[in-house]
Amino acid sequence: MTTCYDLQPTNGKFKHSIDRPTERPKNMRKTTARPTDQMTSGATHESIDQPTNQATVHISNQSINQSINQSINQSINQSINQSINQSINQSINQSINQSINQSINQLMDR
């Protein structure tokens, strides 16, 4: 089993100790390697986990953004369609009522 170290931030930055994986700097915790760590000789958890986490966060953000955009577009489309339908119905009703009223008035005049 390989031994590697989780990095702790030092002054907001991470120090990588890839050259001497068996020496543990004071700011690192000793942990047991996971199978992915064993494939890269002397690598730390941080050097392997960081890109994976960034990719996961990127995919997660993409998914969230798609859901938000879908919801916004759906709402906008519903509003537009509702407005168009309302306008069309008003025009049709107005035209029908006008025609009926004209017909009634013509009949009354006779």
TrEMBL record:
Residues 1-50 are annotated as: Disordered. This is Uncharacterized protein. Residues 16-26 have a biased composition (Basic and acidic residues). It comes from Dreissena polymorpha (Zebra mussel). Residues 1-11, 33-50 have a biased composition (Polar residues).
